[in-house]
Queue: 2 jobs
Job 1
Amino acid sequence: MTNLSPFDIQARPNRLLAQALSCLLFVVCIGLYMHTSVARHRDNPEDRVVPSGHQLVAGIRSAVLEPAEEDDYIPADNASTWERLRHSMIWKDTASSGGRFFISLALLIPFVVLAVHIGLFPWFGAGFLRFFLFFDKIVALSLLPILFIAFGIDQWSKIALIVIGVAPTMILDVTQMVKAVPQEQIVKAFTLDANNFDVAYRVVFRQVLPQVINSLRLNLKPMMLFLFAGEMIAASDGLAYRIAIMRRHMGMDVILPYVLWVALLLFLIDFSLRMINRRLHPWFQA
Amino acid sequence: MVSGVSTPEMTAGLRLLDKQAARATADAEVRAAKSISVEDVSVSYALGRAARRSVLENISLEIEEGEFVVLLGETGCGKSTLLRMLLGQERPTAGQISVAGSRVERVDARSGYVPQRYSLFPDRTVLDNLMMGPLTSKFHILGRLRPSYWEARRAVKAEAFRQLAHMGLQASDAGKYPYQLSGGMQQRVAIAQALMMKNRVLLMDEAFSALDPSTRASLQRLLRTVWSETRPTVVFVTHNTAEALFLGTRVIVLARETKEDACGSRVTLDMKLAEGGMTLRSHGQKFLELVEHIEAVSSGEKRTAPDACGEESARVGPVRVFPEDGVTP
């Protein structure tokens, strides 16, 4: 076997080496963090900028098992872990942000349906496409003050921000997917006695659905970004609100677990969508 | 209203109505016998503000029920455009087209269609692809709640398996997705899918062009068998002359008169063939001569119609019958 350099395009690491390489950067990051933390704590044992392992555990414990400062709830001494978890700070914030996130996700569905119509029906295309092409160029965050005025500072302004921020891009994306469905398929469907409804939903929508799910996966981060922007500016609960509050107290022991928790949540949603896609559309994996 | 009273005027009126009804029925029968009718069809596209590019020029064709017509011509001569108009996917700039006795306004289930690529729905298994057509006409949001739907579905499923076997595919292929099939198998399923609809007209656009020679030959034989069994009217577009002579009972060549011709393509050769299909093995030298002749006409080297592209040449008509042994006028 020829020995190829690791920088050769044709060189392939074996399975074990590939697994090890994929973990390498995680280990390096953890190592660097620990090294910095130890060095800072040597100078100042009370340092809160790069919390030590003990401080992080304490921060996670307080976030997961203790209520938020602004809450009136005081757990009984004999309260179970589940009871404490249900009233914890992280649970409350996750439920608030998650609610806003999933309502926005649900509100995107009609826009996906509209996009299918824009891509398929020339009259819809003529009516809507140029409007959304223009609307897509509006920076959603610049609308935030207007949304606060229109919807108030409760959750609907944040939901509106997410939908306004993501919907035009998704509409244009899905429209392109629909236009990319081969014309032969549409003609064939009509020759098989399909009507407009059949062609739209039983032929075209079915074919683009896995791509729509993939588009949604790519939009998860922008959605969370808009949610965080809204929550950081004006909110009384939510993951981003907590991070913003903790920043004032230099509470890195809570901020860091929150950041990792949000990343984990997004990873899990993305993973679930990927699994759903693989399960429902085996033909798309080919 | 006066009932039971018969006046000479009324009797004469009724006779007139009977005559009109009889004439309408006779017209409908004539139209139906002429499975496809293309009347003075021209197609041109706008090129910029003033200029237009003519693709087809005054095409007139009558295709009888049960004919196997092969449209031949070089790339860009408009044969696929003509097929798309027969489907209803495109509208002619002038003239009109009728299929199965009525004018073609849009794509509908009058004709079956087998394209060169994307002939199957990738998100459906072979069985679902086959069943889609017959079940679509029975589809209703709440249709699945009715026992009649399930009865119909069982019958359609049995027919789908029968068609699958007829096309030389295994029952185990029914659960496969199109990406799991070879190109030849996909086209077999596509033909079966069109046949499931029991259309009297089948339109095929270079359906075998993307296949390797041996698969192509076996599909040609299969198509001939299917056609001779049920005798649908087939319009088959190809640029392969040997394929045209093997499959068709009639070969129509579309071409421009000269390479520099600004006019669109016209029918430069319209030839009926014997039903058995011509091959090099069965017809030898005559087959080769015919191929040579058709290709010369197709490329514009030989002319069979007047030069000018005015109305007169269209009216004269470019029909020419090749009077060879085994080729019947």
Job 2
Amino acid sequence: MVLSIAAYIWHNPVDGPNGGTWLGYTLGGIGAALILWLLWFGIRKRRYKGSGAPVEGWLSAHVYLGVSLITIATLHAGFNVGWNVHTLAYALMLIVIFSGFYGVFAYIRYPAMMTKNRSSQTMHAIMSDIADTDRESRTVASELSDEVNQAILDSCQKTKIGGSMRQQLSGKYRKCPTAKACKLIEDYAKNVDQDNIESARRLLALMNKKSVLVNRARRDVQFKAMMDIWLYLHVPLSIGLLAALIAHVISVFFYW
Amino acid sequence: MRCQISFITRKSKGGLIRRDSTVDSDVIRIGRSTSNEIYLEDSRTKLHHATIDKRNGKPWIEAQSGCSISVNQKSKSPESIRPGDEIKVGPYQLSVKEGKDGYELCIEIELVDQQGDDLEELTARSVTSLSQTGMSKRAWSWLLFLVIAALFIALPITAFFKPEVREALQDKTFTADIAWKTGEFATAHQFFAKDCQACHTEPFVTVRDKECVACHTGTHAHADPEFYKMEELTGTRCATCHKEHNGKKALIRRDEGLCGDCHKDLDKEVQTDLANARDFGSDHPEFSATMLEYKAADKSFEKIRVSMEKISGQKEQSNLKFTHEKHMDPEGIDAPGGNRVMVCADCHTPEPGGAGMADIRMEQHCQECHRLEFEPDYPQRQVPHGKLDHVIFTLTEYYGNLALKGGYEDVTAPKIVRNRRRPGQVLTKQERKSAFDWAQEKALEIGADLFEGRVCSTCHTVKQTRADYPPKWDISPVRIADKWFPKASFTHDQHLTMKCADCHDVAKSEESSDVLIPGIDNCRQCHAGTEASTNEKLTSTCVDCHGFHIAEDFLLGDRKGVILQQDVSGTLNRVLDK
């Protein structure tokens, strides 16, 4: 990287810095080779029995070489941009790299948050706890009014973890039946008659427990989505970049 | 109403468990509350879901407000019931049977819609990863790859090989290969900028000179390729230096490398009279001036090249007698209007365009002082500044007129010239001849005085070539060098901030033969090469003074001798058609 910056500063082509000078071709060649190598990571990481360096080493190299690609490609282009396939390739490359930056950030930030959030439970255990709470709360609610019973029933039957992309990422669920039931029971418990006060309290405790569990599960899904979402940009755009790169290379030599 | 209520439970390995009970009441309530006659514990039923009672001696079932039931799969309430009816209350199915053993009615109750496993249902409802939402990295990847490849690879290449596709796609704003464009076109090329194939005629082949020469027909080559057999000269394409797609300003190379790469060691490459040069400030030979050498034998001038190093021994052979020293006397000179201090611009002015200096003309610049008078009595009359025959002719005319008119007071003149004419006097033939002979002789006499004495020889070299009658004189032709440095493009226009004397030391020049053109040292006071920034001088590269396309006898197309006429006209026609 330092070498390419030094060469760029030293090099003074007659037609200004651009991809068509000897340095431009050299940096372009290095850049294209880097892109192909970086793309190869997508294949290499799937080969669990791959020989040579471990995947961790490849990932580290993938990140550092990806960063260096910004410099090399920018110098290759000589800071020239336009409405053409060349800048398309450059723009796609930048989006891929910067989405990768987010990936690095996400992989540093979210695993710790997930561990903390799960309180050493697995996702299956949390879901199982929710189901247990559902069963118990349904039994308790059956002794209470139809309104409460129906709310609990809805909470049991309609509450979901995760959902659409937006729900997974935001962790926000409008009209969540569990939240609705919690609120209802809270109000109900305040005015309940003496006979049902014990059941109402128990149900309130159960629903609060469920609410905590549901939120925990949803946050887990949210963190995981935050960790995964960038790949939906990173991977398709890197394949788009491959096409744009091929178009770029073909076009400049086709119309040499 | 006495009813038998039977709860049926199916065992997992087949068989039934039947739990019978008796209800004896006018109104049989059904629901989740334990106070009901028929207690259904599943939470999916309401506290009080429905009621069975007797109406007109027949049993009826009616759902409570806000609850729903179905009788024989039809949502009806209230509805009379009879044996064989199937009633659905929440997850329960109530089958009405004929009453036996004193029972009016028998109702078999079975939980047909079992509560599912909560965990399984919750898991089934929940979408806990992005990959389950239907988004597919693979599908998006393929889509992007194919769209980009189709638009930016397949389409332009197809259009290149298929004119019909190209024409179908081409309009004023869009062409199939528009996205391949790497940068702005030079202004002069804008009018065919959308036709990439005007220049890029063959795939994967660099733009060839014939595409350039198709339009640039009159551009000269740099040098004779037969004489200068250098790879740099014969193997360099137009586009090597003139790179397109670099913005609206066309690329003209100005770097020293354009010339210096070859000319720094030119003597090692080819046999040449040219001295090596690399940088104007540090590596450039002394100028050579183009001077005129007078050949008296045939009265012609020949151009000679003289190095400025040897210029001190040179005299300009203009055949003009002139002294800058006297004309530029700071005290002034005697002029018709009195004393006048002359300045350079009185005679030397740039020609239109400023490339060179305008011609100096006798009539315009000299004659105001240097009058061509010949008759003291009539000073406003002058001879023309031109051929000697014309001067003699003018004089003969003048004195012929006087002779015929008579009354000319000159003791040397014949009587007929001196005598005044009487009114109506007619001269005889003899008298006219005598008068005219005198006029001719007078003209030659005055002419000799002008040529050799007081007028012409002030500036010109005049020699009598025939003493016998009629005498003849000859004036050496005058030429001054038009361009001293024709191989460089100096313009006075760009040096107007300077004083003339900064470069031309004319104050002490007594002779017109003095060479007053400065050499390279004079220019280097202000100009340097690419090292200029270090010594605070003006950066001046080779092309600031020299042209590249300078081979007078060779056009670009001739250079390699490979431009086929049909190719050239074909490309040109296509370009012009656009």
